[in-house]
Amino acid sequence: MEKESYTFLEDMLTTPSPSGYEQPIQKVVREYSTPFSDDVSTDWHGNVIAAVNPDSRLKIMLAGHCDQIGLLVNHIDNEGFLRVAPIGGWDVQMLIGQNMQVWTKSGPISGIIARKAIHLLKPDERKVVPELKDLWIDIGVADGNEAKELVQIGDPVTLELGVRKLRNGMMFSPGMDNKVGAWVCISALQRFVEKGKSDAGVFAVSTVQEEIGLRGARTSAFSIDPQLGIAVDVTHATDCPTIDENELGTCKIGAGPVLFRGPNVNPVMFEQLTEIAKTQDIPIQVSGLSKAASNDGNAMQISRGGLATAIIGIPNRYMHSPVEVISLDDLDHAATLIAEFCLTLKKESDFTP
Q1: Domain limits for position 136
Q2: For the chain, which ranges sit under pLDDT 50?
């Protein structure tokens, strides 16, 4: 991955974006995409739309949601401990013992989530998985008055943000789901421009609020009104212990992006993406998806009169955790595959099944 592209990815991963609070990361997206886009806009919902050839008759929308799961401060008690509600789906066990960041109007405040020491836990307490309502954030204040001077009800909270590298081109960070998908879409647009464009109008959208109902993809697809759509999101890697490949199929980190087949996916788009991957020597994996997708592809497929839709997954270990793992190679290959597909589009392209 080129240095500029990696810096963009790192900037995204170290910028907060809980659903409904995506403004900081969308600023990063706008600044990066402006130099190679014909138009960059932000709608009132918060979606950032970077477009090339926006007046073309044939339009394709590339959607990757930039929002991450988080927490929201909903109570400050008299002792100054913060009580929180979830934004998106959490495994509460992942939160115990974590460093947190409360994103206030004055900047981030460090905090921790813990519980009483194991020495003080009664035998029955050790066997019970706590609920979020039983946990709190400690920001080290003297009392509730001090806490209220710093934190407001409704302030968003994330795990402590940061990026660390592993071996073989892998890296981990909270929020890979799905900042990497937004990165792929913007990078695909950039590569599309660098390779010479085509007849298509390409709209790379950093969508909002996917984690709470695919909201941004629904609103941006309606306003853009494209004929084609590609959703890019993370998908569960199955190459680690305790995951049953007989149930979930085979998905390996570093083996290439995943192309999905099934009722969510236009078969003509799938075949063309597969053929491009073969001719361009881009590694891919194929996975079946038999039910309605839980990502932006779902919203796009049934927008207005319906889009011809494809879904590309980035293999991800330990989704919705502080240590989500991806391969940089998978991101690069996904961006290149999408750019190459967009380059093949002609005014007369037909994706009728």
Answers
A1: 72-159
A2: none
